[in-house]
Amino acid sequence: MEKFENVMKYLKAENGNLNFLGKIFEICIIFLVAYLFSLFISFIIKKNLHSQSIKKHNSYMRIVTITNLFIKMTKIIIYFLAVMLTIEVLGFNSTSLFATLGVGSIAISFGAQNLVKDVINGVFIIAENQYSVGDLVEISNYQGYIEDIGIRCTKLRDFAGELYIIPNGKIGIVTNKQRGDMRAKIVFPVSIKEEPKNIIELIRENIGYLKDDDRILKGPDVWGVTNNTDRGYEITVAVYAKPGEQFKVEYEIRQKVVEAFIKNKVELPIVKAEVNQC
Predict the structure, then answer these.
(1) For 231, which DSSP code?
(2) The whole model's pTM is what?
């Protein structure tokens, strides 16, 4: 107790109020409490978010998007209150100070038009559920997976691992490739020497097992000969898969058919190189 009183002597002035060092100490305590409280809120929310019961929900990624936004807004409110308390500790009247800043904000409002546009568009993106965290989308010629959605910007990571931070105000047409049944269309070129019926039957035999795959919603269907070329023909396979699984299914079909072609010595069209004589 005596040690505490000795410490307080260094933090208080003669009149009993906090001196400059005491105010700095109190401000540090305020922001430490704000930081710990924001961590606690984030921990509790994310712990419930990762529960198995919520993960089984059909709108899980939508829940993740809104939850992440809620955590960010909560942190903003907590630190805003911390700033308000700091202003009071420094001896300023926060109400009159913000009233004064309100007059000055009119002068800079024109310079913040892009920020306002970003925020408004961000609200509509989230409210209309245009896309969620984890969705495969194409925005402004950038294609990749949504990593984070904020009020001001959207973070998109492409297949090369590059992260694009796109202001919400600049987001126009969005192609969401993660909604609804996703189709994979694969075309196999074959030599004109091969009998089409035999090739179609060979493909069906090697990919037929996918009909019982949980990833598949419809198919795979072998359409047949869909195009004729000067050196052969093309056979097309189509399959509908769950969102996000269409690429893996496509790669698997390609591999199975190539292995079958090699095993059965199926000939492919010969590509002739043209030599220009000078």
Answers:
(1) S
(2) 0.56
> Residues 223, 235: contact at Cβ < 8 Å?
yes
Per-residue pLDDT of the chain (278 residues; tens, 9 = 90+): 555 555 556 566 666 666 777 778 888 888 999 999 988 988 888 777 776 666 666 566 677 777 878 888 888 888 888 888 888 887 777 666 666 655 555 555 555 677 778 888 888 888 888 888 888 899 988 999 999 888 888 999 998 889 999 999 889 889 888 777 788 899 999 999 999 999 999 999 999 999 989 889 898 999 999 999 888 999 999 999 887 788 889 999 999 999 999 999 999 987 665 555 54
Give the angle subtended at the CA of 50 by the CAs of 46 and 56, to the nearest 5°: 140
Which domains are delineated in the chain? 2-92 (no CATH), 126-176 (2.30.30.60), 182-263 (3.30.70.100)
